[in-house]
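Appendix B, Record 12. Input sequence as logged:
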Amino acid sequence: MNHTKKATYFFFLTVILITTLACQDNTPKANLILTNTNIWTGNINQPNAQALAIAGDTILAIGTNEEIQAFKGAKTEIIDLKGQFITPGFIDCHVHLMMGGNALLSVELRDANTPEIFSQRIADYAKTIDKGEWILEGNWDHTLWGSELPKKEWIDAFTEDNPVAIYRLDGHMILANSAALKIAGIDKNTPDVKSGKIIKDKNGNPTGVLKGNAMNAVLDKIPPLSAARKEAGLKVAMKYLLANGVTSVHDVDSIGTYPIAKKLKDAGELGVRIYSINPVYRWKELMNVERNDDDFLKRGGLKGFVDGSLGSHTAAFHRPYTDQPTDKGFFINSAENLHQWIANADKNNFQVMVHAIGDSAIHSLLNVYEQIIAENGAKDRRLRIEHAQHIAPVDIPRFGKLGVIASMQPYHAIDDGRWAEDLIGPERIKTTYAFKSLLNANTTIAFGSDWPVAPAIPLLGIHAAVTRQTLDGKNPNGWVPEQKITVEQALMAYTKNAAFAAYEEGIKGTLEVGKLADFVVLNKNLTQIAPNQIKEVKVVQTYVGGKKVFAKKNK
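Logged structural output:
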């Protein structure tokens, strides 16, 4: 065989061999591959990776750039991320989704730092709405201009035609104008209600501020939101969340988000995954509700309250407030009622999560949980305490011992840290927002925002947990610095632990083969920059189910 014939022979032999091998290649092909990236997976067995292959809504493979090439097909889209940082999609474990959406559509008072700005924003907003329309949300913070609570007189002159019921940012106090008080039938002769207070001036007239259960007299008179308004609120909320890298939320829903979310899901328009949580006292009426749970929308959580908040002096403590020696706060619901509701909900396999902020409220709730575990027997119940802000030292070990999840909001620490010591003194703050102490006690900590009480921006939450630098700039080394945690611990709380807190660790929370392709692309590596820089990091892209749902616009 001459050289030419021999070369031709081997050429065709090689073609046949390559064709045969190609036909035998059973490696599944990705529709999307991301390469040259720095991936923090959250998976302890494979903490880091360079590349990610996605098929449909699922992670097909994760590994080095070279390893992922095996999953490249003829139609695979390949994106070079040029060293950008990827984390699992952030999961916010505590939002009020519809309230947050409507806050974006309403007057914004969160950063109003003088009474004049507060009043002017409401005046300007009132000009944009119809006569008779309620002005809601707001989320004001009187500590920004001192300690004086707002008064109805600040806003009455330009809200005569619009009832006002705007929340303090913690949700446990509202300011109502005269129009709203009249609708509610509140005047100088109206007595306080149990677990509530009507603030009155020196002449006995209501100032417009209502605390705790006293708020209900006004809130119960607010007309239900229209379906169109709810849909608009949910859509703007999703846009906001995705822009901040939030791919899943645990929605504490008291105003009917679920039906709107289901409508959007059925239309293929639900961009954020939602775990819908209803009031615990409604456990019985939810027994026969058709669930139809899936990866985007599910039910099964029930939420209750023990007490209120620190800033409104409605959180329940063992000892009085430092600045108000006769005031210990109060319980919104009795331990007896909570035990009845929680025990029945637990027997019927609902997951229970209860708001408790003051040390007395937390202690009482742990007692209820301990009793229910003994009564109903051992099972994977994943009880949660929402907020768990001010814990008595003796109760910290009980979280890990009882398997109670601490569902906490780190941004609250750098917000409340501006003034908390004035309210509860230097000793009690040592175990306030006790992230490190709880982790040392083998507690599962899951993070969230409590949006719209605080911004639903996980990067700010991570910065808060790691630095504990208060918003006023007065604690550059951290407020109660011994409770700082690491970046990796904070990331776990917003991803893996957050998924565990909703029984969803099998499908999300870490970037692993077979899990949902929910992830966030950031412009800097959170694990390699100085903690002070974390709040400056930007979300570049957000993916849900392998689809790009947010991309930062280049300026």
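The radius of gyration is 26 Å.
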